[in-house]
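User: Teach me something about this protein's shape.
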Amino acid sequence: MHIQPCKSWILVAAVAASLMACNFDTAGLKAISTNNVNNLNNLNNVSNPICGNDLLEAGETCDGTDLAGNTCITRGFDSGTLACDGDCLAFDVSGCEGTGPVCGNNLIEGDEACDGTDLAGQTCITQGFTGGALACAPGCLSFVLSGCEGTGPECGNEIVEGLELCDGANLAGNTCTGLGFAGGDLSCDTDCFGFDTSGCTMCGNDTINGDELCDGANLAGNTCVGLNFAGGDLSCDPDCAGFDTSACLTQVCGNNNAEGTEVCDGTDLNDKTCLTEGFYGGTLACAGGCSAFNTSGCSLCGNSLIDGSEVCDGSNLDGQSCLTLGCRTAGTLLCNAGCSDFVMLGCWTNHDEDGDGVDDNCDNCPTYSNATQVNADNDQIGNVCESPAGATALSTINVFESMMPSTTSWTTVRGTWTPGADLISGTAGTDTDGNYLHPVALAANNYSVEVNFHYRADPVAGANWAGVIFGWQTSGGYLSNAYECLYERNLKQLQFWKYITYNNMGWTQLATTNVTTSATNGQSRKLRGYVSGSSIRCVYNDATNAPAEITYSDAYATSTSFTGKAGYRLYNESANFTSFIYYLQ
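Assistant: First, the predicted structure itself:
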């Protein structure tokens, strides 16, 4: 039985056929949903095509210069210039030349869906019917379906039939991407003759389309700074409708401007100083990261408390004094301005016998140059002063006299002793002696006495002696006991003498040794006498480093033989004495 379709179906079929003849030109698709017409800035709807941007988008037949590959010739004309209508929904063929498509010549041209017997390969079956004869409608823009048999396509059965572009979930393989969008969810129109692209989006193709503010890495030249942030990394929201400013910074560390949560920034310390941070002074700085202060330049020096690495602070000397720091007499110890060391000017006598830069009062060896003050056994005497007695032979400098002008405590026993500039000049008469004694009371044993001297430029002719005397004792106003270590200049000889009362022997020479030296009269010489047990040592040295030594054991020495006084000794000579030292073991 032949069933004649209703006229409404014929009209729909004719329109659909016309669309098929255009190879499913998107101009025949359903208009894009306007579900966001109440959104004035349209930031949430990025699928609406923009006519006039020269970019063919879903729903447009053409757009400006984008003609989707069409020309006047493809539209059935001979030549000319094809253009796009102002609404982007059709072509403007006014610039084309020739007659254009001719309906009735059995040749499909231009927008014709068919032409006479040229049905573009279509049949009733391809139109969704079961059989029959398909014909071309007058005007060549649609098909005549009256000769077709069957009910035609059924929209809603999930089967794409006839002129249907889709049916329900069956999109015939089409996607948003295939239709020129960047992504999204494509759906089928309820009449099955078009696609619903409202779920499609152009966001994600790194090209700003429609109402997009940005797209992926394409930020349209915008930056965090341009959006009134201090810096940071700007990005695009996933929907391309706005910017993600979560990585933008409200402050920038390093611009010398403390901003936001910054504690400080470079030279901008927010009006803070070492004082406001609990220190006593110094220079406050900003730490890296601008989140904290760098207080390494601040100091607690000045608060009279010893903090951190401070050695002292103001009047707080941590229990130290001139004496505890190795000086032999008390003075005024101070703390320096940085609390890092002591100021010892008040401990000094302003005299440096050996010229090593260490004041005599605080020098652990004032007659031997030793700027480093090396002291192996950590006593009061430096290594060079203990030698040649041995590294631990002595421990204390009991007396040191640099022979400054005030020598009123000394006693003259014969000879003439005249104070000079940093020395005492002694002269003994011909064949007589001269003695200049210090008031120190010598220990019974284990000590050393040293004198430093040099000869005058015009020495007395003949034999002459100069050196150190010790164990000086008297009885009834007369000398009863004494020892001396002397240097005899003419002979260049070191000699050891003892005063013996037995049988009125007087001064008796007990030992000698020659000295090989080239020292001149004006060069310094040292003579030291050591007492240890019954052993006596005389040690000589001079500016030319010409050492000599005598060791003598006094079998007649008693427990008091070495007590008494000590000092300078001359015989038949003149000499200038510059220092006197009394060491104890």
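Now, about its shape. The longest helix spans residues 7-21. The first strand starts at residue 79 and ends at 80. If you'd like, I can walk through any region in more detail.
User: That's plenty for now, thanks!
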